[in-house]
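Ticket #4471: structure output looks truncated?

Reporter: J.K.
Steps to reproduce: submitted the chain below (108 residues) through the standard prediction queue, then opened the result file.
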Amino acid sequence: MGPVDQTLGMTQQINVQVYRSPAARQIEHIELALIEGSTAWDAVQASGWADALGGCEQVVAVWGRRVPPDHVLRTGDRVEILRPLQVDPKESRRLRYHAQARPRKQPR
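Returned output as attached by the reporter:
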């Protein structure tokens, strides 16, 4: 749990956003108010999307940079739940290149 402000006797809050992409070209997000000292994984659990990950490796990022699940958040952070890759990016580029390749004209 986060620290308590001794002057107010209240826990300080931070505002964060959690984003996920359940499918290609589909993005969902939620804004949360968490207690100061919350971690990236706390934000994922508070969003209600932790169960959707199933047994997959939980990979999270803050503003596009991978962070460990115990990374402490600051107000304004954007937490992103990363999906596992479906296709190797190198293989995907190779397949696109071959699909778009045009026959070269023979020199005269």
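Triage note (M.O.): checked the attachment and the full token line is present. The beta strands are 4-5, 10-11, 13-23, 26-35, 59-62, 65-67, 78-82.
Status: closed, working as intended.
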